[in-house]
Amino acid sequence: MRHRIATCSIGGKAAYGAVVDGGIVDLSARLGKDYPTLREVIAAGALQRLAEDAGKRSPDHGLDAITWLPPIPQPEKIICIGVNYPDRNAEYKDGSDAPKYPSLFMRTPRSFVGHNTPLVRPRASPQLDYEGEVVIVVGKAGRHDHAQPRPSQARRLPGPVHLVVHERQHGAGCFQQHRPGLGGPHAVTATTQQRRADDLF
Fold it and tell me: Taking every pair of C-alpha atoms in the chain, what is the biggest distance, in angstroms?
């Protein structure tokens, strides 16, 4: 069964829940004392159990009654990988040599907005391109791990979009320029996405 988990605003108050047919089951109203946000749910390893329980319930709110927020509130860090596919240079046509390793860059939480929230195009350029992404949410701390996170750590695979002014990026050696991002609308539990993830990686 597909479990979709979201952070949203209900009546102006931040909440989280499971997206089901017809709306959203408000998990924060039931479990907020134990798990204030989805970060605590994931860190406790309780995401799958809560999602399965919510799937048996009727929605508390219709989707027209909520405002979507980025799925993970206040993430500790957002690490991004650039130049992460073989045909990157052919696409960019910037004359640069193919890099030996992918580049890493950071994003800030405030550079993301929720689903259906307008994005502001920077005044620096009329150009604004979009790129689809795959995101792995690592909810369990680890140190000196191998190249691939353990299944118990990589909990979810949401699929956001980010937008970038590419003409301001070329030649700068920096991937952080003008990159607003759209997160959500929801995240999907890792076990639901396992077969798809195996195909991707």
Answer: 56
What are 29-85's pLDDT values in tens digits? 999 999 999 989 988 888 888 888 888 899 999 999 999 998 888 888 888 887 767
Over the chain, what is the mean pLDDT?
76
| pLDDT given for residue 167 in this prediction | 55
Q: Concatenated DSSP letters for the chain? A: ---EEEEEEETTEEEEEEEETTEEEEHHHHHTTT-SSHHHHHHTT-HHHHHHHHTTS--SB-GGGEEEE-SSSS-S-EEEEES-STTHHHHH-S-PPPPSS-EEEEE-GGGEEETTPPPPPPTT-S--EEEE----EE-S--SS--SSPPTTTEEE----EEEE-GGGTTTTT-S-SS--EEE-S-EEBHHHHHHHHHHH-
78-200: in CATH 3.90.850.10: yes
Residues of the chain with CATH 3.90.850.10: 78-200
pTM for the full predicted model: 0.75
Distance CA 108, CA 125 (A): 21
